[in-house]
Amino acid sequence: MSKKLLLIDGNSLAFRAFYAMYNQLERMITHDGLHTNALVAFNNFLDWLTEDCQPDLALVAWDATSGKETFRGDLYDQYKAGRKKTPSEFKEQFPYLRKLVANHGLHNYEHEGLEADDIIGTLSKLGTAAGYEVTVVTGDQDLIQLASDQVTVKVTKKGVTEIDAYTPAFIREKYNLTPDQIIEKKALTGDTSDNYPGVTKVGEKTALKLLAQYHDLDNLYAHVDEMKQSKLKENLINDRQQAFRARKLATIITDADLSIDLSDLTYTGLNVPELTEFYEKLDFKQALAKLHALQASGQIEGVEQPAQKQLTVQELTVDNLDLLANVKDEVAFHLDFTGENYHTADSVGFVIGNPEIGYFGSRQVELLQEPILKNLLENDQIDKDLFHVKAQWVLLKRLGIDLKGVKFDFLLVAYLLDTVGNDNVLSTLAQRFQIYLTADEDFYGKGSHYQIPADTQAVLDHIGAQTDAIWHLKEPTFKELKEHQQDHLYFDIELPLAFVLAQMEYQGFKVKPERLEEMGADLDKRINDLISEIYRLAGEEFNLNSPKQLGVLLFEKMGLPVIKKTKTGYSTAVDVLEQLAPQAPIVDFILQYRQLNKIKSTYVDGLLAVINPADSKIHTRFLQTLTQTGRLSSVDPNLQNIPMRTEEGRKIRHAFVASQADWVIFGADYSQIELRVLADVTGDENLQKAFLAGEDIHAETARAVYGLADDAPVDPLMRRTAKAVNFGIVYGISDYGLSNNLGISRSEAKSFIDTYFKEFPQVHEWMDQIKKQAHEQGYVETIAHRRRYLPDIHAKNFHLRSFAERTAMNSPIQGSAADIIKVAMIKVNQMLQEKHLQSRMLLQVHDELIFEVPANELDQIQELVPKVMDSAIKLKIPLKVDSHFGSTWYEAK
DNA sequence: GGGCTCACG
DNA sequence: ACGTACGTGAGCCCA
Fold first, then answer.
1. A391 with A440, same domain?
2. Which positions fall inside the 5'-3' exonuclease domain (predicted)?
3. Whole-number Å distance, CA A635 to C1' C7?
């Protein structure tokens, strides 16, 4: 095989790189304020190119930066004139581009009076003569004139990820031209970006037609007089000189005098120490991770990574399980699975061990059921270090194993240390602590490309690297946990909660498909009637689910007034439609359609699709490490947003039933927990008194704000306003937001807020103090020391900064309420166990808990659950819990 | 994949 | 002058 020469057009590619990632410009800045978007894209591109091409010789050519004009400037004084100034954000990256190239083991070259094109043209000719297979890479079509049997010219298309490889055959196919004729084409069309004209009115199409007939410029002009009279002929004759000048400008020099030789261009590969330093200096986290992963996997040599020694997992079989007899007090364990939903996922394999005894694993997860392994996992005297304990617990439970003795869950700890940018992926979370792993996505592929490699050892080593990383992550992360005063939050709240949640998910909530199907049939009929009526009133059929088409109908064809706009067009949201309803009867039908269709598609059809046929239950997953405030979320399906507010939707809850006959559904919810938390954390005495004074906090607030007597009646409008103010306070109030919500003027809203703060002065003080704290330390905390960092608190942008300030006020409230119910869940679960009750907790919906309860336990549960919830965490004012039960979730209201 | 809409607390 | 109430997830459209 012939040797390879790689020639890269530095300027055009860097330019492409800068604009390919232009939308990332302000996100990619080093701590010293250097923009790095072009560097990041160029770096990725170099990686890809060198891996793909594996060159023997390689060079990146740059346009001359100094001194003398190029011959093209001499030839035409307008050459490249009128170009926009290079943005300074791009210019500042130039010097680093060259370093980047050098650190990748490629040569940089520029030469006075020459453009990068000419350097590449000359070297490609030299390379061809010396028998090299030449690859030219550029962002610019001009270079394709160099294509030949030995030279392939790769040109980036959109961005830098897609590439066309121009060979003579490809050029023939695309333009019906030879590479040489590319110059002739350019002569006729000129070049707008280099600012030289060809022949007036001749663009690509005309040029191709002329070249098909006349082949080249000389022959064309030799026969131009024979052409029949036309505007084109006139233009050709008039612009003859321009065309020939353009041909000279477009022709790339292939015999320039260079001060280098092919022998100077040896490709030396990555300079790992230099590149590491470069990446570190410019905060290239991903590139650094990739580099470290390459080193760890032994594909390249480089800087010593003590914690990342290449480890080999020893494969376990039924015959060598006694290898695990040495396991004493602590092991790391990782059971890998496909996809995200561990309730249904297939297992890929597992690894167990630690650096002292080594790592052992198998792709046969049934091995875990062998006594030695099962006992080890179920032994609470042997500490386990894991990633994502809840998933591990469920996967093992499905194998009949009861995981115990868990001490470290890296996912939970990483989430508690910093919620920002947590993607729940081990490899990216590990990077925060300078541990670099091959990402699952890179190892297995993603989406439809997911495939478990056939090489068992490779798979085990991949899982092993993760297991070993978990082991090494424990110490540094536990240390930070302590510094954050989050030991209690982790050991006494989140870690035990993970087991409670795992049991709830595994238990599942029984759903009667026939109830949903009945509802579905009824809804279908009513939806179809609505659709017919809407089409009739509209006078045409259209896609009712398309806000765009609906907007055209309402606001263009029917001429209804535009009340609100979205980024992309007219808003057709409920509040808008409600305002339009009196003006056109169709609008009310559309509102009804929207409501019923939502119930049908999201809830009837959506839930039916996720009932497990084996047990007729729905097994949601609670995401414990996602929200920025400490709340849970629920997915696959979301059982935290089952309809409640409208009767029509609420009927969905009829389908949710207890799993056994004579059992009931029991629900208990905190009353006004967030406002009680507010009264507690602010220490506001008036707010505390208001809670102690009456049943109805919104009415009490109204009395305070409107200056009514303690026992005076409160009219509904006053109560509604006070309620909105209470919500506003919890959300981090602004007069603008409140005015919008209540449909009042900003100044009226402002005066409400002022009065509120006058009545509850310590709430006001707390709001100021928490904002100040956020500015000073960059984060806010809940009563259990749950932390939320607010990077935007220092933003120059008013919008971002204001948002961060509202968040600073809201997160401690919402988050503390989350702390309280989490503690309650752990205590309720403990109580159920201690009292040997069969009742089971099924769901948490932020301020309420849902249970299924045998009829004979109902009295006890009704007494005990609210009691445990009340006393979960002691506040300065009592917590209040309401409870309900019934034969279905609908009845438990 | 982003935007819109709408379900919950 | 600026212009959003806080926290979520799912279905659908449309590029």
1. yes
2. 3-268
3. 15
Query: Which pLDDT value is given to residue A304?
Result: 43
Structure tokens given for A350:
């597992």
Predicted pLDDT at A552: 93
The answer to whether position A225 is within a domain reads yes
CA at A547, C1' at B4: how many angstroms apart? 7
Positions on chain B within 7 A of a protein C-beta? 3-9
For position A158, what pLDDT does the model report? 53
Instruction: Give the whole-angstrom CA distance, residue A268 versus residue A287.
Output: 19
CA–CA distance, A569 with A387 (Å, rounded to integer): 45
- What is the C-alpha to C-alpha distance for residues A429 and A417, in angstroms, rounded to an integer? 11
> Residue A414: which CATH number?
3.30.420.10
Is the shortest CB-to-strand distance from A636 to strand C under 7 Å? Answer: yes
For residue A542, which nucleotide's C1' is closest to its Cα? C13
Residues in chain A with pLDDT values less than 50: 303-308
Q: Do A10 and A57 fall into the same domain?
A: yes
Q: Verify cis geometry, omega within 30 degrees of 0, for the bond prior to A637.
A: yes
Nucleotide nearest A806, CA–C1', reads C6
Assess if residue A775 is contained within a domain.
no
Q: What is the pLDDT of residue A45?
A: 80
* Domain containing residue A260: CATH number: 3.40.50.1010
Cα separation, A866 vs A405, whole angstroms: 30
- Residue A500 carries which side chain, given as an amino acid letter? V
Residues A528 and A611 in one domain: yes
Report DSSP letters for A749-764, one per residue.
HHHHHHHHHHHSHHHH
End-to-end CA distance of chain A: 78
Q: Where are the beta strands (DSSP E) in A585-715?
A: 617-618, 621-623, 633-635, 656-657, 663-670
**Can you give the pLDDT at residue A175?**
84
Residue A434: both structure tokens together: 């300078």
pLDDT reported for residue A17: 80
pTM over 0.85: no
Residue A830 lies in a domain: no
pLDDT, position A111 = 87
Q: Which of A's residues 582-611 have CB atoms within 7 A of nucleic strand C?
A: 601-602, 605-606, 609
Q: Please report the sign of the dihedral spanned by the C-alpha atoms of residue A430, residue A432, residue A436, residue A438.
A: positive
Give A702's contacts (C-beta < 8 A, 6+ positions apart). A708, A714, A718, A719, A721, A722
CB A627 within 7 Å, strand B: no
Are both A527 and A478 inside the same structural domain?
Answer: no
Write out which nucleotides of chain C lie closer than 7 A to a protein Cβ. 1-14
Query: Would you say A160 and A215 are in contact if contact means Cβ atoms under 8 Å apart?
Result: no
Name the closest nucleotide to A565, judged by C1' and CA. Answer: B4
A643 touches strand B (CB under 7 A): yes
Query: How many Å apart are A877 CA and B4 C1'?
Result: 42
Range(s) of the domain holding residue A241:
4-264
**With a 7 Å cutoff on the CB, does A813 touch strand B?**
no
Q: Can you tell me whether residue A7 is helix, strand or coil?
A: strand
- Same domain (yes/no): A404, A366: yes
Q: Indicate whether A252 and A352 sit together in one domain.
A: no
What per-residue confidence (pLDDT) applies to A851?
98
CA A269, C1' B2: Å apart? 40
